[in-house]
Amino acid sequence: MFQETLSAQPVISAERFVLRPLRRSDAGLISMYTADRRVAEGTRAIPHPLPPGTAEAYVARSLSDKRSEDVWAMDGSAQGLGEVLGVVSLTHLGEDQSEVGYWVGPGFWNTGFASEAVSALVAANPHGSRTLFAEVFQDNPGSARVLTHCGFEYLGDAESWSVARCARVPTWTYLKKMG
Length: 179
Hints:
Layout: E1 12-13, E2 18-21, H1 27-34, H2 37-40, H3 54-63, E3 69-75, E4 86-94, E5 97-104, H4 113-124, E6 131-137, H5 141-149, E7 153-162, E8 167-177
Parallel strand pairs: 5-6
Antiparallel strand pairs: 1-2, 2-3, 3-4, 4-5, 6-8, 7-8
Helix pairs in contact: 1-3
């Protein structure tokens, strides 16, 4: 796995919220959302049922100086929304390449929050990446629409392991060339 010491994460403004680095206090809301089977099964890495301490460990990894992934909370508290509506992340894949990941709490599905977060992250391009990749499970066309709405192009079919499903799941892979 590619690993390097990452610089401090910027706060990124979106229309209805900001993307900010995670805080230890976010673990409770992250745990509540990711304990939902639908959220866990939409990701590769979130287990279901969610073991105790999983969210706290996730937040701790996101705060480490030796992380390979930057994670931002979608924080709508300034607009009267929740402090954590979901998360968006960038994982370093290698030279000038990063992978985008995201999930939104079920109470905020179909609100455009995922598209807004991914658009803001792409516009900011905090890793200075020349190429962004993303992958979604084929049974989640809503997540695919988020990517195409944000300018990603379909690259091909693949499959990935889902911890929550305990199975390989067909995926669609997307690419966005920057600048």
